[in-house]
Amino acid sequence: MFTSASNVEELIRSFRIEEAMMRYSSFVPRLYNYCRSLGFEPGRMLPSRAFCSDESQGYPTILIAKHFGTFPFNHGRGGAIVATQRHGPFAEHGQDLVIIQASHVGYDPETAQFGTYRRIHAAHAEYTPNCGKIAAVVSRYLREYRFAQAGVLLERCEGVLCVRIDNGLLRGNRTEGLFLNLPRLVERDADGDFTPLRTYSTSKSFTASSALQRQVSDLDLMEGQRVAIGTRLRPKMFFYQRELDQEPESRDQQEAGLITAMPWIVTSPNPLLTAAQINTQVEFDRAFRTAAQAPSFHGKRLLHIAGLNIDISPQPGEIFPTTHFVPWAAYVQDREGNQRILEQSELVALLREQGTDNPDEVDLEAAISAMAETDKVQIGVGPA
Length: 384
Prior knowledge:
Blueprint: H1 5-14, E1 22-23, H2 24-37, E2 45-50, H3 58-68, E3 73-74, E4 76-77, E5 81-82, H4 87-92, E6 96-108, E7 113-114, E8 116-118, E9 127-129, H5 132-151, E10 152-157, E11 160-166, H6 167-170, E12 177-180, H7 182-185, E13 198-199, E14 203-207, H8 210-215, E15 226-228, E16 238-241, H9 253-258, H10 262-266, H11 271-293, E17 301-312, E18 322-333, E19 339-342, H12 344-353, H13 364-373
Parallel strand pairs: 2-3, 2-6, 6-17
Antiparallel strand pairs: 1-18, 4-5, 6-7, 8-9, 10-11, 10-15, 11-14, 12-16, 13-14, 17-18, 18-19
Helix pairs in contact: 2-3, 2-12
């Protein structure tokens, strides 16, 4: 999906959050009413959720069931990877089909931080990473970034700015890990090589590149003084490589979708928010294409909407999170096979045009009571 650093930066910038965000309690009825405006028929709509398996995703699922009148089909794997091999079974179960795809990220209102969630059912109601699957993927890359932040030093030597780099980061025979984009950090010599000025026991020192000198022009170092590059190690200065299973929907699917953007994720003020956002974008770009080409969806109405679930941790006395949805994009297909992509601004506008009253919503308590009070059905198991 990504072909250059500028592509990654543009994708991140294009994802609007604050102006697009809406509570799930208003998003789901708006989505239902938008489906009605497309000709989807009440009682024939089947929603499907491509969510993470986290319990924080239960509240959105309940609201989907309430407004669509049926429990949604499960279209998701851990970390909100869309299980595209389930398109066929899903299509068999309904006439008018709605796929709701969303990565999720926690939000703690007390600290105004993204990436954690209060587990109210745990012994001490502690905060843990949310989404845990994405956090597990990102943690490896964060560790390598922090090592590089400490392992690249800026120093003044013989009157010029130099970069002292740990040998572990210069080792070229590695197949995995963080690799420095040396042309952005180090000045080439007359032969075009990266020749060290000095060699130490565990590192080498090079003349800093012109680009780096401009970037750190505010840094006033005395002769012999050195400081870690720290947060000055920006995304375009490094990249990651790792041997991953590239087969569609393999166990490495999520990591393979994030690795190119990982320098922007680990340098983000909110790494798990950025990772969840990019996962939503990458998965929609991948999964909608499978839906558009799936024979099982031919002759069906289909809406595939992708976005980000923001799980606001329950406060004392609350049972569920106050989940918000940030729409990203949607794919619309009618029975004749006409197809349309809705980008974020158009999608948000169309949803906001819809009312939040749903005359077809189900009273879940009444439905459950009716099921409990109905006459018992005798189930015959046949002869032993």
